[in-house]
Amino acid sequence: xxxxxxxxxxxxxxxxxxxxxxxxxxQYGITLRFEHAGRSHQEVRLGFGKVVRYPExxxxxxxxxxxxxx
Length: 70
What we know:
The protein is built from 3 helices and 3 strands, in the order ααβββα. It is an alpha+beta fold and 70 residues long. A 3-stranded antiparallel beta sheet has the order 1-2-3. β2 and β3 form a beta hairpin. It is elongated, with a radius of gyration of 12 Å.
């Protein structure tokens, strides 16, 4: 799932990354950390189409990002 979400980040951020990890998740979206060679990294925020109010809705929010319903 992280790989699918990473494709939504800008191409230049993706191209330089050696690893991608989820960094944060809240009711508004997910933040991915793109780690680069050495010690540098960049974070990209992907917002859900609507506020997630309950834990059960997180999967729906992430699926919406992956299939383009943002």
